[in-house]
Amino acid sequence: MTAVSQTPATESRHDWSRVEVRALFDLPFPVLLHRAGEVHRAHFDPSEVQVSTLLSIKTGGCPEDCGYCPQAARYHTGVEATKLMSTDDVLEKARQAKAAGASRFCMGAAWRSPKDRDIPKVAAMISEVKALGLETCATLGMLSGDQARALREAGLDYYNHNLDTAPEFYNQIIHTREVQDRLDTLSHVRDAGMKTCCGGIVGMGESRDQRAGLLQTLANLPAHPDSVPINRLVQVEGTPLAGTAELDPFEFVRTIAVARLLMPRSMVRLSAGRESMSDELQALCFLAGANSIFYGEKLLTTGNPDTERDMALFARLGLKPMQAVEQGTTVHADIVATDAASDCCAHSSCAA
Ligand code: SF4
């Protein structure tokens, strides 16, 4: 117990050691949830949950080899590659999202990185979505500094780019790019003045220490991500990670709680994998400090609980959707859109 930090709930740190993070993971379950709940209540109304959905603007056909991802062209998962959606079609989805109460609209494309010729097209989408009065978010893969600045100038508020897993486990999951590539993109995003959405995936066969390593790396970034999506692996037939041993659900809750403790002011989001979670497991996650969910029919290419089930769960738990924050004053990341058709773990729901 001596390694467990007594950091006050209001303090944000960027110097967590692995030993400290691991000690939090190892706390007795009720003690960990109690501490995480205290920190949650110090920074948020625990009755509010931010709801987000995600639109895939370009699905499948990705040249990367992320072992969990059905959008990688090299895996035979039945996901059909599509071209980049037209701006008109994206705008129609954005209007629907706004009419459904969305405040933010996230656009995901299954690219290793956008080509420079793609940037004006995406920039046009961003500008027009912004003109609807929505905040904008995108997840397009790796960005150069120039690309990040161009997207920012077009009005992009948030950029999603996940770390996926602990640095020492990364090369067992992805071989076509390095952790440093991801860190560089996050740096370009921050330098361009955008907010970051960055998390990872658990249940990929990593150890508890490696889960601690993922959260340690996220918390020690120069700025805590505004949103921290924690994905539970959705095993898709045809991907290398199909057949991985299931993660103990309590371990998933522990991961949420430790994320809340390390990044007290971030939105901790239940992302991919929620469809297979029981209502009771989701309730435990909310107790552990989760305060954001992806919402809608599809999370890229994998399923998501339907909206009726989500609203029924909210009603049973006395939760309410977090209201939109006035533009320009928000301090919390989040993403809202409509349905989606791809499952770019790497990008938005899991990890790009
Ligand atoms: S996670 Fe993203 S980068 Fe990785 S294969 Fe899937 S679409 Fe490509």
Automatic annotation (TrEMBL):
Cofactor or coenzyme needed: [2Fe-2S] cluster; [4Fe-4S] cluster
E.C. numbers: 2.8.1.6
Textual note on the cofactor: Binds 1 [2Fe-2S] cluster. The cluster is coordinated with 3 cysteines and 1 arginine.
Pfam families: BATS, Radical_SAM
Residues where [2Fe-2S] cluster binds: 106, 137, 197, 269
Record keywords: 2Fe-2S, 4Fe-4S, Biotin biosynthesis, Iron, Iron-sulfur, Metal-binding, S-adenosyl-L-methionine, Transferase
Family annotation (SUPFAM superfamilies): Radical SAM enzymes
Reactions performed catalytically: (4R,5S)-dethiobiotin + (sulfur carrier)-SH + 2 reduced [2Fe-2S]-[ferredoxin] + 2 S-adenosyl-L-methionine = (sulfur carrier)-H + biotin + 2 5'-deoxyadenosine + 2 L-methionine + 2 oxidized [2Fe-2S]-[ferredoxin]
Keyword Transferase: yes
Enzyme class, UniProt record, top EC level: transferase
Sequence ranges assigned to domain Radical SAM core in this UniProt record: 47-265
InterPro entries: Aldolase_TIM (IPR013785), BATS_dom (IPR010722), Biotin_synth/BioAB (IPR002684), Biotin_synthase (IPR024177), Elp3/MiaA/NifB-like_rSAM (IPR006638), rSAM (IPR007197), rSAM_sf (IPR058240)
Residues reported to bind [4Fe-4S] cluster: 62, 66, 69
Pathway listed: Cofactor biosynthesis; biotin biosynthesis; biotin from 7,8-diaminononanoate: step 2/2
Biological role: Catalyzes the conversion of dethiobiotin (DTB) to biotin by the insertion of a sulfur atom into dethiobiotin via a radical-based mechanism.
PANTHER family (alphabetical): BIOTIN SYNTHASE (PTHR22976), BIOTIN SYNTHASE, MITOCHONDRIAL (PTHR22976:SF2)
UniProt subunit comment: Homodimer.
Family to which the UniProt record says this protein belongs: Belongs to the radical SAM superfamily. Biotin synthase family.
Record-given protein name: Biotin synthase
Origin species: Lysobacter panacisoli
Lineage of producing organism: Bacteria, Pseudomonadati, Pseudomonadota, Gammaproteobacteria, Lysobacterales
